[in-house]
Specification:
Layout lengths: L10 E4 L3 H17 L7 E4 L3 H4 L5 H4 L7 H8 L5 E5 L11 E6 L7 E4 L14 E3 L3 H10 L4 E3 L5 H9 L5 E5 H7 L6 E3 L14 E6 L3 H8 L4 H17 L7 E7 L4 E9 L6 E9 L3 H15 L8
Parallel strand pairs: 1-2, 1-3, 6-7, 6-8
Antiparallel strand pairs: 3-10, 4-10, 5-8, 5-9, 11-12, 12-13
Length: 311
């Protein structure tokens, strides 16, 4: 018998960070809009390896999937009905039996510079220390400003803001979407033009994941999906899959749909030290999003020296 979620609560798994919980609230609001009469969902906080280990770069401990692995295990074991993730935290290849049933309307996908006293990357003093835990951000920083000292930084959004305001480094980079969803008052944060500084594939997208075989939950989640965001996800994840991207590969990607159903995809592949940055762009119909992403990846792969995609 299919579960009736007007009678029993949908069990949602999530990380416990303030941003993750804010994203769950947004997801619940959208689900209730799509399905009036939905019982108040139950939120289950699951501690992930990525949350527990804060003293080492992600690339050293296994990658971005460490923010999702334990949640996905709970999903496969039936402890939860669905999961809410930041899309960029989910591995390109999903565990067998799981699907992304929906993504919500995208928030601002841009990166933002947080640098007290500076309003652009050009304003940073010569040799300034910029802290980030993202190899994509670090590679683009080094390409644009080779003089900068790029240092590691881990922690949730509030922790990173506090460290920069406390003088741990001259600057860091944050996602505009995270700041907006937290309602964080960060007037010194300056958004960066994606033509200059390309965000991560999936940035700004909230993913709703469930078991492939669970038709009732898949249907419920799909009712909350945003079509333009779904097309963007298809293009950006096809780009990642085509490049075999991991947390050790600096990759940027942003797909945007217009009202006419046309899609523009900007893509980037870089060397860690910023000495080589490859870019390309694809335009086409949103219906062809995955093919556009795969094509952009194939061109970048063909242009890349062997070391750029070595794991």
């Amino acid at each position: 018998m299919k579960p009736n979620f007007s009678e029993r609560p949908l069990r949602i798994g999530t990380r416990g960070s303030p941003l993750a919980l804010a994203q769950v609230r947004l997801a619940i609001h959208r689900l209730k809009e799509a399905r009036p009469g939905l019982a108040e969902p139950e939120t289950l906080v699951i501690k992930t390896t990525g949350d527990r280990v804060q003293d080492r770069p992600l690339a050293e401990i296994g990658g971005k999937g460490l923010f999702a692995k334990e949640i996905e295990t709970a999903l496969l074991e039936g402890a939860i009905d669905c999961a809410v993730h930041s899309l960029k935290d989910i591995e390109t290849r999903l565990p067998a039996g799981l699907v992304i049933a929906a993504v919500l309307t995208r928030a601002d996908p841009r990166d933002a510079l947080l640098a007290p006293g500076a309003r652009s990357l050009a304003d940073l003093r010569l040799g300034a220390r910029v802290a980030t835990g993202s190899i994509r951000r670090a590679a683009q920083l080094r390409a644009l400003r080779p003089d900068l000292e790029v240092a590691p930084l881990r922690g949730n959004v509030e922790t990173r803001i506090a460290k920069i305001r406390g003088g741990a480094a001259a600057a860091t980079l944050l996602a505009m979407a995270g700041l907006a969803r937290l309602g964080a008052m960060v007037p010194e944060a300056v958004p960066l033009d994606p033509d200059l500084f390309l965000p991560a594939p999936g940035q700004g997208l909230i993913a709703l994941q469930c078991r492939e075989s669970d038709e009732a939950v898949r249907g419920l989640l799909a009712a909350a999906a945003d079509p333009g965001a779904m097309a963007a996800m298809a293009a950006e994840r096809a780009l990642l899959a085509g490049l075999d991207g991991s947390c050790r590969t600096p990759i940027g990607g942003l797909a945007e749909c217009d009202a006419a159903g046309d899609l523009r995809l900007r893509a980037l592949l870089a060397r860690h030290d910023g000495t080589l940055v490859l870019r390309n762009e694809r335009r086409g119909r949103a219906a062809d999003a995955a093919a556009l992403g795969a094509d952009a990846a194939a061109e970048l792969r063909a242009r890349a020296p062997a070391d750029l995609l070595a794991h």
